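User: For my dataset I need records formatted as: sequence, then C-alpha cells, nothing else. Please produce one.
Assistant:
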Amino acid sequence: MKHFFFLLVVDILCSGILLGQQKERIINKEDFSFLENITKAVMDSSRIYPHQSIPSFGSNQTGGILIRPGGRITYPAFWIRDYAMSLETGFVKKEEQKHMLLLTAATQCDQTWITKGGSMVPFGAIADHIRIDNSLPVYFPGTYDVEEQGVKEFGMFPPYCDQFYFIRMADHYIKSTGDTAMLFKEINGIKLIDRLETAFRVPPSHKENHIVYTNEAFRGVDFGFRDAVEITGDLCYASILKYVAANNLSDIFTLSGNRAKADQYKQIAQSIKKALPVIFINKEGMLLASTAKSRQPDVWATSLAIYLNILEGEDALKASRHLADAYKSGTLAYKGNIRHIITTEDYNTETAWQKSLVPKNEYQNGAYWGTPTGWVAFALAKVNSAYAQQLIKEYITHLRETDYRKGPSFGGPFECIYPPSYTRGPVYLTTVACPYIVLKAMENKR
C-alpha cells in the first residue's frame, strides 16, 4: 500500500501541465537543439531549386523554390499539405512562401470537370500535388499522371484537406510578412482573397454546424495522411482543419478591415468547435474519425484537437488519460512514433482501419508516424509529464540513431516505421517539422 501511494505522489509531482499551466519542460535543451537542427537540415534537403533536376521527373520549371515532402527519393513534386504543415517552423523564407502560395492559387481549379476515371474536380479545388516540370496540378493521390488522375480508389472528389491548407498558407504568409496587399493580388483574374473563400466552400459541409462530411457514392479523402483509407460519414479531422481555416479567414478579414466577414468566419469556427465533441467523442474521451465507415477512435484527430484547445477541460483530460494509459501499456507508440489507432482499438485482427488499400501495420494502416508525436506529447503532459518526457526522449533517440546525415545507409527521419524493420519514406519533413512546431511553442510559453 505504501508503494502505491508513493507512485501516486510521483505521478502527481511529475504532472508537467496542470489545468493548462506548464511546470516543467518535456524536452531538454540539447535534444531541442538537435531537433531544431535536423528540422532545418531536412527542410533544406526538401528544397527543389529552379532548374534543379529530379531523376525521372524533370527539372523545376515553376520559377522559384519548391519544398517537397522530404529529401532523397521522397515524393518528387510539390505537395500542398506537407508544405503547409511545416510552415510554422519559421524556416521558410518570404520569397519562397510567396512563390508557393501563388503557384497553388494559379493551379486552383477554374472549371469543374470529370476525370477519365469518373471522379469530379470541382470549381475552386486545390491540387493534391503539383508537378515540378510543367506546373500542372494533380488533384488526386496515387499518381503523377495529369491525364490518368482521379479513380475511385482514391476518391471521387479531391481530398478535403488541401483547400484548408491553402488558407493556412495565405494566413501564415500575411502574418509573417505583413504583406496584406497580397490578398488583393489577382491571379488569373481572381483576387487571392476571393480564391481563399472559394476554396473554403469546396468540401461538402452541413449547413447547421459546418461539419465536413462525405458518402460512399461520392467519397472524398478527409486528410491526405490517410488517403489509402476509406473513411465516410461526418469527418472529424477534416472538420478540425476547417475550424483552423475559419479562424485563419477571420484573422485575414480582420487584417483587411472587413469586420463583418471576420465575425462570420469566427462564428463558423465556434460552431465547429461546439459540434465536434457532441458528434465524435466516445466514452473514453477519444474523437472518432467519422460517423460511418472507419468509425474508430482517432489518435491523430484527438491529440490535435487537444493541442488546438478544441477539446477543453474535462474532455481534454479524459482523452489525455486514455492516451496515457495506452502509452503505458505499449499500444500507442513505438520508438517515439505514433499510430493512427491504438492497437487494441483496431477494426479487427486483419486491419487497423475498417477498409484500407494497404496491409495491416504498413503505411497508413497501422504503422507508426513521427508527424503527430508533438500533439500526443502535449496531451500526455496534461496528465503525466513523465510520460511526455519519455515519449519525446524515445522519439529523439530514434532520430539520432537513424539520422540520414550519418551517411547513405541511414534514412531517418522516416515517414513511418513498424517493428522490427519496416520503414517508408526517408528524410521526411513533417516527421520532424510538426513535433518541432509543438515543442517550440511549448518552450516559448515557459
